[in-house]
């Protein structure tokens, strides 16, 4: 009898909370954009859209045109709102940034250290050259989203985030008081500790996949290109630190999926691109993780409340409902795109929470 009662309870497990946003997303352009934008728009109300196109989105005019292309790729009736970013280069113009922010078009500027990741060649090498822009951003309250990895070939790839914090991020924040920063896609306990050490003006995003995989998933028993992303997954102790921060409810931590689609042909090759495509199952993965951590009641803070709070935007009025089924959720292993098949992130276990 007891078994039966539990069974019935589980069948009706639902979770309704404010609609989530994604505070770090790659939507690409052209065929890929048309394939992936509707996937994110199905679950999320808004997303901070990364500017690392080829060529990158560097000025207000680029951002306005890209925003139009994103809106044109959404299903009819979608209310998804792309929140645009500018790619910081050594020639970025402070007035253009300030105007794009004042018009409401641009919600953040993105710092890629040159060469750190996909399409980051135009990133910053000499931080003195971006000083004026950063100071202007601090004045107008425009946040800087930071890809936190040094690119020095002498620094081991697994240490690049920790070294970046010491050598770049902390000095940069000290030199520009009042600049609001987001340490994006944190992968280490060092990153978590650093965000916690700041009283104000520093947030940290965490992806769903970094809550699930560590570097063994990537490398043990064969190399798994679909788990390769940047920053690369670290040791288990770091994954556990990310989990603790995500489920803590601490307002400084919020969801940035870093869903980064690359067609299979670009991943399954001798030199594969970095990026996990998590947009279709992020919410299922997160509910699974938060339930494992006995923290389902904190999922709303992480996915739907803390991000808007940091960006000074209202939380969404409408809601999302997650439902826990007895059978695993069926979602496609791949989606078709105009660039060929695109593999969906495989958490490595069955998911039972689905978006109703
Ligand atoms: C991103 C991409 O493919 O654009 N890749 C990734 O592994 N996350 C770039 C980035 O955010 O580093
Ligand atoms: Zn990214």
Structure description:
There is one protein chain. With 356 residues, the chain is an alpha/beta fold. It has one domain: Metal-dependent hydrolases (TIM Barrel, Alpha-Beta Barrel), CATH 3.20.20.140. 35% of the residues lie in helices and 16% in strands. The chain has twelve helices and 13 strands. The chain has helices spanning 2-11, 30-43, 60-72, 94-102, 131-140, 160-175, 189-197, 215-219, 236-247, 264-267, 282-292, 299-311; strands at residues 14-18, 22-25, 46-49, 81-87, 106-111, 144-146, 181-183, 202-206, 253-255, 319-324, 334-337, 340-343, 353-355. The strands form three sheets. Strands 2-3-4-5-6-7-8-9 form an eight-stranded parallel sheet. Strands 1-10-13 form a three-stranded antiparallel sheet, covered by helices on one side. Strands 11-12 form a two-stranded antiparallel ribbon. Helix 5 (131-140) links the parallel strand 5 (106-111) and strand 6. Helix 4 runs parallel beside helix 5. The protein is globular and about 55 Å long. The model is unreliable at 1-11 (pLDDT under 50). Residues 24, 26, 50, 258, 260 line the site of zinc ion.
């Amino acid at each position: 009898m007891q078994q039966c009662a539990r069974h019935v309870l589980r069948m009706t497990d639902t979770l309704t909370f404010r609609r989530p946003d994604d505070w770090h997303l790659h939507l690409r352009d052209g065929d890929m954009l048309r394939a992936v934008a509707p996937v994110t728009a199905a679950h999320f109300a808004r997303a901070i859209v990364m500017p690392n196109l080829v060529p990158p989105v560097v000025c207000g005019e680029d951002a306005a045109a890209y925003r139009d292309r994103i809106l044109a790729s959404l299903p009819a009736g979608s209310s998804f709102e792309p929140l645009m970013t500018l790619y910081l280069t050594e020639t970025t113009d402070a007035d253009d940034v300030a105007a794009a922010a004042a018009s409401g078009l641009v919600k953040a500027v993105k710092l890629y250290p040159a060469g750190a990741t996909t399409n980051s060649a135009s990133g910053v090498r000499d931080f003195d050259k971006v000083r004026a822009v950063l100071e202007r951003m601090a004045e107008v309250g425009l946040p800087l989203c930071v890809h936190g990895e040094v690119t020095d070939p002498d620094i081991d790839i697994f240490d690049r985030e920790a070294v970046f914090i010491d050598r770049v991020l902390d000095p940069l924040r000290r030199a520009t008081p009042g600049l609001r920063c987001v340490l994006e896609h944190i992968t280490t306990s060092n990153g978590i500790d650093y965000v916690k050490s700041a009283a104000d003006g520093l947030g940290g995003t965490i992806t769903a996949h970094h809550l699930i995989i560590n570097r063994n998933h990537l490398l043990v028993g064969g190399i798994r290109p679909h788990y390769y992303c940047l920053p690369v997954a670290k040791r288990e102790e770091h994954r556990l630190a990310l989990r603790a921060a995500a489920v803590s409810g601490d307002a400084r931590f919020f969801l940035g999926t870093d869903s980064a689609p690359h067609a299979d042909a670009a991943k399954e090759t001798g030199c594969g691109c970095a990026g996990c495509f998590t947009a279709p199952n992020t919410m299922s993965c997160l509910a699974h993780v938060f339930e494992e951590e006995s923290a389902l009641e904190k999922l709303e803070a992480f996915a739907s409340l803390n991000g808007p709070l940091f960006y000074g935007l209202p939380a969404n009025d409408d809601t999302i409902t997650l439902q826990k089924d007895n059978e695993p959720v069926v979602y496609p292993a791949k989606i078709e795109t105009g660039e060929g098949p695109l593999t969906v992130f495989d958490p490595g276990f069955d998911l039972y929470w689905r978006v109703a």
